[in-house]
Design brief:
The structure holds two protein chains of two kinds. Chain A is mainly α. Chain A contains ten helices and no strands. In chain A, helix 7 crosses helix 8 and helix 8 runs antiparallel to helix 10. In chain B, helix 2 packs antiparallel against helix 3. Chain B has a two-stranded antiparallel sheet. The chains are: A mainly alpha, B mainly alpha. Chain B: Keywords: Membrane, Transmembrane, Transmembrane helix.
């Protein structure tokens, strides 16, 4: 039971908003020692862990070109484009993005979209641009909300799309694990079929929430703009 | 054959170059700590190649990782004033270049797609062109390089230092969040070898009543959800929960349909990934990349969806798996 203290360190660390890197380092060291690893083994675990997980950081390779294009006005142009489609509100645009992300992941294109390659340079300026077209400038709080929802559309689309694809890591993990452990013969296709109902639920639920974001923006921004107008009138 | 390691070296090398720029950036009050942090990551990326093949010891890298965590954790890193364009210049750039700006940006996804679908099957002299199993990250890397080349030609930008500077600004803005996913992957491994998984499995079995299939379904799905929030990854939770509850109880005892039970169980775990800061690459890195003040913003946006979908998975499993 005592090894679970490491989990407690993580929960407490995140709850009290300590720096996550420190929290994870301390939890790792504590769990390693409680689990009977030698200091050398703990160090080696951190080393091999870093070396084996470099793939999650590979998106950094896209940062120079994204930064370069942003210098020349990529985000501004994304805003200009969305201004041409007056029917496309923030919520509708993000629902469209969610659908594309899901379909992309379902046919195995998980790295085609992503926070660095599509959300920051394209989806966020378009989602914000759609709201700005209707309401003018966005207050900080609203901007944060729109950006958070753009990030969420990317994640929900990825998670509940990728399992429909046969050759994705999680499906192969399931078949690999049960076929070797229990000597059965599960087909990836059967598992992928069972991912479809949840994928549909995910699109309906999150899409509905994204569409509701429009109403939230309307309420929040109309009152905010009315307040500014009153202040201006009083002056 | 194009290998994934080449791209890790490229990323490592660009971190090292950026670190060199950081040392000389006097606008950053913590320039030495920042440069040390990114320099160590860059060097670690390259050194890792030999750790993976077992030709170099992992302990020095582990020590370096702990130094990185300490540098960032004790506030020794910061950011300089980004040297970039003014909003007016950007608007002018957008007006002048128009939709052409999208060409390099869309090159990344298009090349990634072509690699994943087409180049994956090509081979040259009996060897596949792309290293097997790494096609998607190779596509991303190749796409980024192609996009940079197209962008620099199109924008008539001759200085390589300009994109490196721009990338460095983004990197400094993200800060320590960049390293967190790799740290968490390590924590998952340590949890596993120290027996945390086995303990959680024992806990789940101990609260499990043997007579109700619906309660067992809830224990399996909620267990996957909670375990994933702790580990940050459904892959770590799956073998444990399946060995404890999924296989022996739901499939063995109650004769559930294995494909339905296991697929929906995994998806219940994914709901956990949506709500945990432990899944840093999905939740905290985007917050940093989008420069959000509230780093839990994406989690808050995902929380209600995750809750409803957990319920959906439980309902689907209860209704259709038995």
């Amino acid at each position: 039971m005592i090894v679970l203290l490491g989990v407690l360190v993580v929960v407490l660390g995140f709850a009290t908003r300590r720096n996550p890197l420190l929290v994870v380092a301390v939890a790792g060291i504590a769990t390693g020692f409680l689990g009977g690893l030698s200091p050398g083994k703990v160090l080696a675990a951190f080393g091999t862990g870093f070396a084996g997980s470099r793939a999650v950081t590979i998106f950094a390779i896209t940062l120079p070109v994204i930064g370069l294009l942003e210098r020349y006005g990529l985000q501004e142009q994304a805003r200009n484009v969305i201004a041409r489609f007056s029917k496309l509100t923030t919520g509708r645009f993000l629902t469209l993005y969610l659908g594309l992300r899901q379909i992309g992941a379902a046919v195995g294109l998980t790295n085609v979209f992503g926070p660095a390659q599509t959300v920051r340079p394209l989806a966020v300026p378009m989602a914000e641009g759609a709201a700005e077209r209707t309401y003018g400038g966005l207050p900080e709080r609203t901007r944060e909300k729109v950006r958070s929802f753009a990030a969420s559309a990317d994640n929900v689309g990825l998670f509940f799309g990728e399992d429909v694809f046969l050759a994705v890591g999680s499906i192969l993990l399931i078949t690999g694990f049960v076929n070797t452990t229990y000597g059965t013969h599960l087909e990836p296709l059967d598992l992928a079929m069972w991912a479809i109902p949840t994928a549909v639920c995910a699109f309906v639920v999150h899409g509905w929430r994204l569409l509701r974001l429009d109403r939230h923006l309307e309420r929040e921004l109309l009152t905010a703009n009315a307040a500014t107008a009153e202040v201006e009138a009083a002056q | 054959m194009i290998k994934a390691e080449w791209f890790y070296w490229l990323v490592g090398l660009s971190f090292l170059v950026m670190a060199a720029q950081m040392v000389t950036d006097r606008s950053n009050p913590k320039r030495f700590g920042t440069a040390g942090f990114w320099g160590l990551i860059g060097a670690g990326f390259i050194y890792s190649s030999w750790v993976v093949t077992g030709q170099a010891p992992a302990e020095p890298l582990g020590a370096a990782v702990l130094v990185m965590a300490a540098l960032a954790g004790f506030g020794c890193t910061g950011r300089g004033t980004p040297r970039t364009t003014t909003p007016q210049q950007r608007a002018a750039g957008a007006a002048r270049l128009g939709d052409r700006l999208f060409v390099p940006a869309l090159t990344i996804p298009v090349v990634a797609m072509v690699c994943a679908v087409g180049v994956k099957h090509l081979s040259f002299g009996g060897e596949p062109v792309l290293q097997e199993g790494s096609e998607t990250i190779l596509g991303l890397g190749l796409g980024a390089i192609a996009a940079l080349a197209i962008g620099m030609i199109m924008l008539r930008e001759k200085r390589v230092s300009v994109p490196v500077q721009s990338g460095r600004s983004l990197l400094e803005a993200m800060g320590w969040a960049m390293l967190l996913p790799q740290m968490l992957a390590t924590l998952g491994t340590i949890f596993q070898v120290s027996g945390v998984g086995a303990q959680v499995g024992r806990l789940a079995t101990s609260v499990l009543p043997k007579d109700s299939v619906y309660v067992a379904v809830v224990v399996y799905c909620v267990g996957m959800f909670l375990f994933t929030t702790v580990m940050g990854n459904a892959f770590a939770a799956f073998p444990v929960m399946t060995a404890a509850v999924g296989w022996p109880v739901l499939i063995g005892h109650f004769h559930g349909n294995p494909a339905a039970v296991l697929a929906l169980g995994m998806l219940a775990g994914f709901c956990g990934t949506l709500v945990t800061p432990m899944a840093a690459n999905f939740n905290l890195v985007p917050a940093a990349l989008l420069e959000l003040k509230d780093r839990y913003g994406p989690i808050k946006a995902q929380l209600p969806t995750a809750g409803v979908l957990l319920g959906c998975n439980i309902a689907l499993m209860s209704l259709f798996a038995f």
